[in-house]
C-alpha cells in the first residue's frame, strides 16, 4: 500500500482527476439537494479536497502541480463571461448610470466595511490591510493588499471565503431585502463576491449573470484605485 500510494501521490494526474471527480460529486449532491445554496459545489469541493489533502499529508504545492490545468482554465472561463455581456449589451447601455452609481457605492462600502470590521475586532494593522480588498478576485486583491501593507496569502483566503459567502447567502439576502430586479441582483452579487458569486448569478439567469460579470470586472478596477486612497485617508 505504501508503494502504491507513493506512485499515486507522485503522479500529477492524480490531483487533477481527484479535483474533477470531487467537483462532479459535489455538483451531483447540489442537484439532488434541489440546488440548495448551502450545498454550493465550490464550498463542498473545497471542504472535501482540504480534508483529503490534510489526511493524506499532501502539501498544497504537490497538489497544485497536478491541478494547475484548472487554474489555467480560469482565464478562458473569465473571458467567456463576455458572451452573456454581449447578449445583454442593450440593457447594460440603458442601465449605465445606475450601474456606475451602484458599483461605486458597493465598492466603497465593501472597503469601508472590511476596514471597520477589522478595526472593531482589534485586528492588527497588517490584518486590517489584508481584509480591505477581499471583495475582488484573488490576483487583484493580493496585489492591492501587498501595496497597502497587507499579507497577500491571508487576503487570498479571505477572498475565497467572501466569494463562497456571497454564493451561498447572496440570493437569500437579496430576497429578504425584496430586491427583485435581475440587474440589481447581478450588480450586488458581482460587486460583493467576485467570480464565485458570479458563477452562482449565472445559475439565476443570464441577465443576472451578465450584470454580475460586468460588476466583478469593474469592481476590480475600482477597488485597485480606491483602496489605497481610502486607506491613506483613514490611516494616514
Approximate shape: globular
The radius of gyration over CA amounts to 19 Å
Strand residues, percent: under 5%
Order of helices and strands: HHHHHHHHHHHH
- Which consecutive residue ranges, at least 5 long each, have pLDDT under 50? none
Please give the domain count: 2
Structural class: mainly alpha
Whole-number average pLDDT? 88
Total count of strands? 0
Which range best describes the helical content: under 10%, 10-25%, 25-40%, 40-55%, 55-70% or over 70%? over 70%
Q: Number of helix segments?
A: 12
Terminal-residue CA separation: 59 Å
Q: Biggest sheet, in brief?
A: none
Could you characterize what this model shows?
This protein has 236 residues and is an all-alpha fold. The protein has two domains: 2-73, no CATH class; 82-235, no CATH class. The chain is built from twelve helices and no strands. Helix 7 (96-120) crosses helix 12 (206-235) and helix 9 packs parallel to helix 12 (206-235). The protein is globular, with a radius of gyration of 19 Å.
Tell me the layout of helices and strands.
Elements: H1 2-10, H2 12-32, H3 41-56, H4 60-79, H5 82-87, H6 89-94, H7 96-120, H8 125-131, H9 138-148, H10 152-176, H11 182-204, H12 206-235
Helix pairs in contact: 2-3, 2-4, 7-8, 7-11, 7-12, 9-10, 9-12, 10-11, 11-12
